[in-house]
């Protein structure tokens, strides 16, 4: 029987214990649960219940979980292709974690051939007006980096470097002038947050959804292209062609890219004890941070 983890860690073992309790509270079956992803949230597929569960690391994620539920309803009301929550009171608070349940989407995750699809969905998203029934938060692009750094298991030297970089980037961001108009933004706009179904693409994962600058959503793919090396020239050109704006040609992009590098590095830093592969990838990303320029291709997780 799963037991509650009182260590304060959030890993695959403790997440399963929360999942079992959450499913019991919601009247769902958890026996055949499959862990899909462990990062800011633990994401499980529940085949017997035809749904997906998202478990936040701690209750500091409660507001984001509630926002995700509201955003899903708002996008659906506007006929925008978005993930839908199950029809039950949500979020749930379980063992000091926010939990939400989502309808299973019968399809595949987005892949590199879908970069143009991502650009089209972002273009349509950024054209929407602000919701009237609730208020989207303003985007704070480094709000999670510092807590990740301070609670991490990495060296003191790495922590000092990362915290110092955050401080420098906040000062640089204050001077950035954005050319596009503010809009609803996804906040984690990469192809893995697409599901491709027989009926068309569906956007998922609204945890970082906010009101802010569209350049941030575009800079996600651009950073994956320029820093991580995940896109070819032709693939990135397709993304730009469909959206109609190349964020890398704008003078403020290098600051946004540096912020994204910090966020991508501190995201994987949360799981350095999970496997040797993750620890090695963390070190690869830190080499870029230390050098101030890409020095090796990154591996997606």
Which short descriptors sum up this protein?
301 residues; alpha+beta; Phosphorylase Kinase, domain 1; five-stranded antiparallel β-sheet; three-stranded antiparallel β-sheet
Chart the SSEs and their pairings.
Layout: H1 12-26, E1 34-38, E2 41-46, E3 51-56, H2 62-77, E4 92-94, E5 97-103, E6 108-109, H3 115-126, H4 145-150, H5 156-173, E7 183-185, E8 194-197, E9 200-203, E10 210-212, H6 214-228, H7 233-243, H8 253-269, H9 276-291
Antiparallel strand pairs: 1-2, 2-3, 3-5, 4-5, 6-8, 7-10, 8-9
InterPro entries: Aminoglycoside_PTrfase, Kinase-like_dom_sf
GO molecular function: transferase activity
Protein name: Phosphotransferase family enzyme
Give a brief outline of the structure.
It comes from Umezawaea tangerina. The chain is α+β, with helices and mostly antiparallel strands and 301 residues long.
Overview of the molecule:
The structure is a single chain. This protein has 301 residues and is α+β, with helices and mostly antiparallel strands. It folds into 2 domains: 12-104, Phosphorylase Kinase, domain 1; 112-291, Aminoglycoside phosphotransferase (APH), C-terminal lobe (Aminoglycoside 3'-phosphotransferase, Chain: A, domain 2), CATH 3.90.1200. It contains 9 helices and 10 strands. A 5-stranded antiparallel β-sheet has the order 1-2-3-5-4, sandwiched between helices. The protein has a 3-stranded antiparallel β-sheet with strand order 6-8-9, with helices on one face. Helix 3 (115-126) packs parallel to helix 7. It is globular, with a radius of gyration of 19 Å. The two termini are 30 Å apart. Residues 1-7 have low confidence and may be disordered. Keywords: Transferase.
């Amino acid at each position: 029987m799963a037991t509650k983890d009182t260590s304060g860690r959030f890993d695959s073992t403790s997440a399963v214990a929360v999942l079992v309790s959450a499913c019991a509270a919601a009247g769902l079956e958890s026996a055949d649960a499959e862990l899909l992803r462990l990062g800011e949230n633990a994401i499980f597929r529940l085949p017997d219940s035809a749904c997906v569960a998202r478990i936040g690391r701690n209750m500091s994620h409660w507001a984001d979980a509630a926002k995700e539920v509201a955003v899903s309803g708002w996008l659906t009301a506007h006929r925008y292709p978005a993930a839908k929550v199950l029809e039950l009171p949500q979020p749930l608070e379980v063992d000091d974690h926010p939990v939400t349940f989502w309808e299973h989407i019968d399809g595949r995750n987005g892949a590199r051939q879908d970069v143009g699809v991502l650009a089209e969905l972002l273009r349509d998203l950024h054209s929407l007006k602000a919701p009237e029934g609730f208020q989207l938060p303003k985007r704070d692009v480094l709000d999670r980096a510092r807590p990740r750094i301070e609670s991490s298991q990495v060296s003191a030297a790495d922590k000092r470097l990362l915290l110092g970089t955050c401080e420098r980037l906040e000062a640089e961001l204050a001077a950035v002038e954005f050319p596009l108009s503010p809009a609803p933004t996804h906040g984690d706009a990469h192809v893995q947050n697409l599901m491709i179904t027989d009926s068309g693409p569906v956007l998922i994962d609204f945890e970082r959804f906010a009101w802010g600058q569209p350049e941030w959503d575009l800079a996600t793919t651009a950073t994956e292209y320029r820093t991580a090396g995940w896109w070819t020239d032709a693939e990135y050109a397709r993304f730009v062609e469909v959206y109609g704006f190349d964020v890398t040609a704008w003078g403020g992009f290098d600051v946004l890219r540096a912020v994204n590098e910090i966020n991508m590095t501190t995201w994987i830093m949360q799981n350095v004890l999970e496997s040797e592969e993750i620890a090695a990838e963390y070190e690869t990303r830190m080499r870029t941070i230390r050098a101030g320029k890409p020095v090796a291709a990154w591996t997606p997780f």
